Amino acid sequence: MVPPSPVARRATALGVALALAATVGCASRSAGSAAVSPAPGDCRVRYVVRSQPDGLTADLAVTNTGTRLRSWTIAYDLPADQRLTRGWNATWSQAGTRVTAAGAGSLAKGASVTVGFNATGAGSGPVSPGPGVPARVTLNGVTCASTADRQTEPVTPPGPGTAPKLRVAGNSLVDTAGREVQLVGVNRSGGEYMCVHGGGFWDGPVDDAAVAALTSWRVRAVRIPLNEDCWLATNEVPAQYSGARYRQAVTSFVATLEAHGIVPVLDLQWTAGRWVGKDSQCRNSTATCQKPMPDAEYAPAFWGSVADTFRADPTPVFDLFNEPYPSDLNVMSRKQSWQCWLHGGSACPGLPYPAAGMQSLVDAVRGAGSSNVVLVSGNSYAADLTEWLAHRPQDPRSNLGASWHSYNYNSCNRAECWDRQVGPLAAQVPVVALEIGEDDCRGDYVDSLMSWLDAHAAGYLAWTWNTWDCKDGPGLITDYAGTPTPFGAAVRRHLLSR
Question: What are the sequence ranges of the domains in the chain?
Answer without folding.
Answer: 21-152, 167-497
